[in-house]
Each structure stands twice: as C-alpha cells, then as structure tokens.
Q: What sequence folds into this?
C-alpha cells in the first residue's frame, strides 16, 4: 500500500513500478514509510532549500517555519551569548536557523520523533544542536540567555478562530510569563493585538503578499510597538504612534496596495508619509498619488480608470479600455465576486485588476494594471 491518496495521484506509472519492486524486497510498512517520506520531501522543497535531504512527519512539516522566515527571525538572536532554548522545536525549522547564528542552542519537544528529526535536520544544514524530549511546561528555563517558543497552534486542528484568540499549546499566557529577559514567541498572523502584553513588540511578517506570522518580542528585546517585515526583500518598517493619519483624497494616477504586514502593524500612515501619498478613504488601506508609488511594502499599480461602482458602467468602461479578463479584488465592499467576474468577462484583448472598494464611503471601482 502506498501511503497517501495524494502520493498515488502524483505517482507516475514508473513510480508505481518502483513501489512494486521495493515491496518485493522490503517489508510493506518500510516501503510505505519511505514513500510517505519521499512525498513529504517533495512538498518540503517549497519551504526548505535542503528539503530533499531532511526528514519529516506530516504535521511537523505543516507547522515548520519557512526557511526564509526562520533565517530572518534568527538574525535577531545573533548577539545572544550563552544558551538559547527553542521550546517546542518541532522538526527543527527554527532550531537550524537559530543554531546557525548562536554558539549554543537546545531544542525541546515532547514528541520524541520531532526532537530526533530536529537534530537530523539541523545537521543537514551543517548546524550542531542539542535536543531533549520533555513537556516544556515542566522545565525550569531561568538559566537560558534567550528563549524561543513556537507553540502548536489551534489551526493545526482547523480552528483558525482559536488562533486569533491566541489558543495554542502551551498557551500564550504561559509564554509571556517565561522568566527570561529575552523571549521570542511565534504566533498566528491573525492574532488579536489586545492579547499582546504592554511593552512587547509585535512583528508581522509577510513573504510576498502572504502574511505568515506575528512574532512577539519581549520587552527586553523590543525596539518598537509594532513592525511590518516583508520578505524576501528583507525590509522592515516600524509603526510610529506619533505619525499623523494619512490625508484622505480621491484616487490619483497611481495606487499602492500595501502588504498585509503593513496593514496589520498599523503602519499605513507611516508608509503614506514616506511616499508622500494619501489614502483614498479613511477606512481603506489603499494609497494613491500622482507619481508612481514604487515600494517593497506594497503592490504598485497604475490607475487606468476610476469610477463609482455599478456593474453596467464598469462593464462599459472595460470594453472601452479593450479589457477582456479581470482579476477582481475587494477591499471594503461585500458581494459575490464569482458572479461579478462572469458578468464582467468581455471580448477585449487586455487583462486588468479591478479593485472594488470605497472612496469617500461610496462603492467605487478602480481599473488598474501593474506598474512595470
Ligand atoms: C509549531 S510546532 C514547532 C515548529 C518549529 N518551530 C519548526 O520550525 O519546525 C509545535 C511543536 O510543539 C510541540 N509541543 C506542543 N506542546 C508541547 C509541550 N507542552 N511541550 C513540548 N512540546 C510541545 C509539538 O509536539 C510540536 O512539535
């Protein structure tokens, strides 16, 4: 038996013949485990440059931090002297990244298989680490120079609302109470900000436009209240609470759709100030200006047309602009996008992005193309 339906779906006839030959020589359980590992390694190459040499459990791979994000986070550990504890180290995504920048790191997980895989996976990256099997809530951690915790999230069981409420194992409150000056906690990107204690920094990390996580830095480490980081560009922006709200004006010739890391960090006004841009509505994060808005913190677009939203006038405008296929984005406007996309599909030779949004609190449409 092959391990998973997905593996079967991905397998070519040649793979299946290999499976049959292996089962002639090896116990069926061993072949199943090897097949599962091969499938996980294939998937892991999306997260890890050396994914094809690492070892995984399925939940361990799903919960592991992407290498790009883990390396970014680990940079902030590079001046730590003494031992770093990685509590809940899983299969070692973060452990390998932290181990690469500090002299000594110990990974702890209550799942023995994860502790063993973490040590193997760190070695694959040329990093030596120590690991231990324990329930971290039963440990004394006061001897550590710094602590990193990546608790198992509720979304691992499909409960994303639990993620927003900070539900995890061990709980966030336990992480916040750890007796170390330097504590770093990885949390779900949708985490409610009010759950973060005063003095802690919340860093929202996106890879491209994909918001990955909220990283919480203890007061002994914090340098801001909130920060937006966009990878792989490796740029970071602090939300300054003293910056005035951005001006609000009708759309100009160009648009910037800020990264979700910027909006979650509350740094839209900061970004507007650096770009000399304005918001098109007080409650919508889109920025606009009459000069091109190029920034690693957002998607830069040219506004080809700006009009009050209505299906017929929008369809007519798309015909006028020779636009046949549209990517629809909603920001501040509810509605059935699938039906609208069908009604707007035309015969034009060009494609465009249509932002369905609000301007001065009126439903509005912006026909945009990416700035080249
Ligand atoms: C989100 S994963 C860690 C992923 C890891 N940072 C990585 O990049 O590979 C969480 C891990 O916490 C472990 N865990 C959950 N509760 C624990 C506890 N009380 N003590 C020790 N480990 C725990 C789980 O076994 C799981 O491996």
A:
């Amino acid at each position: 038996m092959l391990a998973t339906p997905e593996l079967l779906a991905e397998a070519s006839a040649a793979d299946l013949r290999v499976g049959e030959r292996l089962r002639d020589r090896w116990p069926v359980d061993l072949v199943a485990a090897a097949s599962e590992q091969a499938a996980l390694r294939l998937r892991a190459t999306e997260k890890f440059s050396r994914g094809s040499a690492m070892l995984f459990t399925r939940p361990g791979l799903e919960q592991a931090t992407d290498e790009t994000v883990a390396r970014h986070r680990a940079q902030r550990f590079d001046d730590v002297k003494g031992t770093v504890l990685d509590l809940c180290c899983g299969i070692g995504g973060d452990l390998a990244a932290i181990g690469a920048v500090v002299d000594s790191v110990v990974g702890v997980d209550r799942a023995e298989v994860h502790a063993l895989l973490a040590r193997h996976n760190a070695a694959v990256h040329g990093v030596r680490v120590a690991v231990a099997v324990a329930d971290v809530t039963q440990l004394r951690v006061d001897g550590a120079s710094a602590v990193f915790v990546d608790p198992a999230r509720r979304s691992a069981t499909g409960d994303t609302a639990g993620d927003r409420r900070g539900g995890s194992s061990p709980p966030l409150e336990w992480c916040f109470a750890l007796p170390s000056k330097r504590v770093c906690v990885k949390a779900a990107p949708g985490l409610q900000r009010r759950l973060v204690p005063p003095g802690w920094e919340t860093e929202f990390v996106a890879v491209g436009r994909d918001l990955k996580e909220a990283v919480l830095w203890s007061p002994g480490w914090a340098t801001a209240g909130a920060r937006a980081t966009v990878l792989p560009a490796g740029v970071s922006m602090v939300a300054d609470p003293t910056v005035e709200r951005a001006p609000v004006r009708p759309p100009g010739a160009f648009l910037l759709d800020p990264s979700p890391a910027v909006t979650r960090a509350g740094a839209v006004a900061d970004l507007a100030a650096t770009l000399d841009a304005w918001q098109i509505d007080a409650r919508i994060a889109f920025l606009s200006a009459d000069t091109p808005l190029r920034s690693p913190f957002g998607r830069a677009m040219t506004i080809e047309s700006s009009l009050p939203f209505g299906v017929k006038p929008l369809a007519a405008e798309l015909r006028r602009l020779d636009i046949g296929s549209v990517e629809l984005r909603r920001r501040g406007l509810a509605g059935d996008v699938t039906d609208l996309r069908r009604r707007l599909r035309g015969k034009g030779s060009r494609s465009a992005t249509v932002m369905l949004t609000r301007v001065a609190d009126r439903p509005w449409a912006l026909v945009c193309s990416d700035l080249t």
Q: What stands out?
A: The mean pLDDT is 92. Residues 254-370 form one domain.
